[in-house]
Amino acid sequence: MHLFAKVPAKGKTSRRGMRRSTRFGLPMMKRGDSPTRQSDERVEVTFRFYSTLNDFLPPWQRQKEIRKKFGSHTSLKDAIESLGIPHTEIALVLLNGFPAGFEHKVVEGARLSVYPSFKSIDIGELSLQSGKGTVLFQFVLDVHLGTLARYLRMLGFDALYSNDWTDEKLAEMSFLEQRVLLTRDPGLLKRKKVTRGYFVRATEPRFQAVEVIREFQLKEKIMPFGRCISCNGLIQPIPKEKMNTEIPPQFKQRHSAFFQCQNCGKIYWMGSHYRKMTILVNWIIAQAY
């Protein structure tokens, strides 16, 4: 019996036909082998989504465990968003019972428990939504939420909107100005650049306004008619004598209080339109409590 096998010379083939790399002494890849297939094996992950995150799932997947396979290089962010849930809606991810960031990779047999923001529990630094600025009542809205933008301005909130802004522009503004991006498009919230966003569930603008106030706990921040509903500029009182001549004389005689947007110059007074807006504002405030 031979106790030692003869080592083949570099670059040559042994009796078993194993060709070795002349540089590292490692098995050389055979023709047809895929480096991706070898280095990124498939792993199975089990998900469980809680509370409002189920809004993004089809009915047959809600409130139950979901199993899916991914490449081993897949991040938790990409894995979760592949099921339809934007990362901006998520406050906490537990990987096998331990907090994990979006950058973590999936592993074989992993169990992911995914939670939305907590209204009554402060999870502090564990929250994936922490450290994103303190001014939570500055917004930028997508092209489908124009009426909601006007209602938020009517309530005194800083709400940027334009019907010709692209998704890239919206994501950039949200990132650079640390604004909450409001949208009805989950795909827009999945952009990596968007760190603060919210998917508006309601479809009717009045109820959308109530939803946003509740979600961001803005009841104490409401300042009715503090902003121009046309351009988002701040509104300040203006004496009659300083107003331009475009205001009809009968309005100057009938009303004593006038207000002007500091940005676009639009003049406001307490006419019939003001009474209608007051009714709407009071309704929204009452529903938000």
From TrEMBL:
Pfam families: Mut7-C, Ub-Mut7C
InterPro entries attached to this UniProt entry: Mut7-C_RNAse_dom (IPR002782), Ub_Mut7C (IPR027798)
Residues annotated as domain Ubiquitin Mut7-C: 43-122
Region (Disordered): 1-38
Annotated ranges, domain Mut7-C RNAse: 138-278
Superkingdom as given in the UniProt entry: Bacteria
Biased composition range(s): Basic residues: 12-22
PANTHER family named in the record: MUT7-C DOMAIN-CONTAINING PROTEIN, MUT7-C RNASE DOMAIN-CONTAINING PROTEIN
Protein known as: PIN-domain and Zn ribbon
